[in-house]
Amino acid sequence: MRVLVTGAAGGIGGGVARSLAAAGHDVLGVDRDADGLAALPEAVETAAIDLRDEAAVRALLADRPLDAVVSCVGGYEIAAVEDTSADAFRRQLETNLTAVHVTVAAALPTLRERGGRVVVVGSMVGSVALPYHGAYSAAKAGLDGYVDALRREVGPRGVDVALIEPGPVQTGFNERAAAAARPDESDGPYADAYRAFEGYSPAATDLETVVERVVTATTAERPRTRYRVSRRARWLPRLARLLPDRLYDRLVRAGLPGGLLWRLLHR
C-alpha cells in the first residue's frame, strides 16, 4: 500500500508513519517541520512543505499513485473567543481544516482510480466544544462536517473515508498550547482561566492506542466510518444529547483546569 501521511514530523502522524513503514507499506511523510521529518526512519520518504500551499501539494502529488491519505495535521492556541484575533482564528482554521482539504482534494483522482481511502484525525472537540478552545473547536467541528460530506460523495465512487476522534493524547500537543496561553493578562475578564491553564497537562490517551486505531482505519478491509478513542471521546458526545445545555455546560467547565472534576482528577 502506498500511503501519504501528513503531520508526520511528530506525535500521531510520526507514529503512524513509523508503524505503516515497519509493516512494509510505502510511506510518504509530509510536514512543515523538516527537522522532525529527519527523525523518521529511512524507510519513510519525506517532503517538507506547507500543506496550506495548494500549488506545492499538487506538484508533490502529481502522477504519484496513492492508496491512502492519512491526515494527522493540526494545532491550536488556548484563548477565550473574545481574545482570539482574526489572524489567530484564521490560522487555526487553515491549519486544522484548509490543510486537510488541500491534501485530500489533490489526492482524490488517484484514490478514486485505485479504490483507496482517506483517514482524517480530528478531535473530540469537534463534538464537544471546550471553553478557551473556541477556534480549535470551530475548526474540528467543521472538519467533522467536511468528512461526512466527503464520505457521502466519494463512498459511492469507491473511496472509503474514516474519521478518528481522540480525546487528549500524550504527545506534548496540549502542553505546547498551554505554554502559549496568555496568563500575563492579569486584569482581563479571563485572567483566572489563563492562570489555571499554567502547567496544563490533561489526563490523556497514550499515543500508541491512537496510532493503532489510525493504522487499523488505514489498512482494514472495511474500516468503520468513525473511531472515537478514549472514554471521554465516546461518552461526552452522548451526554450532550441527553442533558440540558446549561447542565452540560457546567459538566464541561468542571473538567477544565480549575474546575471541580479537574481538581478531583489531579489531586
From TrEMBL:
SUPFAM superfamilies in alphabetical order: NAD(P)-binding Rossmann-fold domains
Keyword Oxidoreductase listed: yes
GO cellular component terms attached to this protein's record: membrane
UniProt GO MF annotations: oxidoreductase activity
Swiss-Prot/TrEMBL keywords: Oxidoreductase
Top-rank taxon: Archaea
Pfam families (UniProt xref): adh_short
Family to which this protein belongs: Belongs to the short-chain dehydrogenases/reductases (SDR) family.
Name this protein carries in UniProt: SDR family NAD(P)-dependent oxidoreductase
